[in-house]
UniProtKB/TrEMBL annotation:
Gene3D superfamilies per UniProt: Ub domain-containing protein, DC-UbP/UBTD2, N-terminal domain
Lineage top rank: taxon: Eukaryota
Domain DC-UbP/UBTD2 N-terminal: start-end pairs: 19-116
Organism expressing this protein natively: Musa troglodytarum
Protein name: Ubiquitin domain-containing protein
PANTHER family: UBIQUITIN DOMAIN CONTAINING 1 PROTEIN-RELATED (PTHR13609)
Pfam families given in the database record: UBD (PF16455)
InterPro entries hit by this protein: DC-UbP/UBTD2_N, DC-UbP/UBTD2_N_sf, UBTD1/2
Amino acid sequence: MGCAGSTPAEGDVILENAKKLQKPKPWKHTQQITHAQLKQMRDEFWDTAPHYGGQKEIWDALRAAAEADLDLARAIIDSAGIIIPNADMTLCYDERGAKYELPKYVLSEPTNLIRDG
């Protein structure tokens, strides 16, 4: 029997988590923003994220996964050993149990994004 609250077993759980990976559900920003504003928000988050704790290598892998298509993102998550209890990647853990929280705006575009042109 496993202990309640114990860390998931490595291989199977990580692979299962990567398989269920998906983009976050549609969401709306508090105000309409442009692609440039969204990019700036994302860049600011990724530039400061390692200061919140965790390993820089995991933050780098999370950024690569967030910016990739789902198949590549699954491969990145799997190879980095990242555990994702939520399929949308808003909450992740590394193999040491460090927590990584990602805002939806780095994972997908808001429904009220102002289209260029």
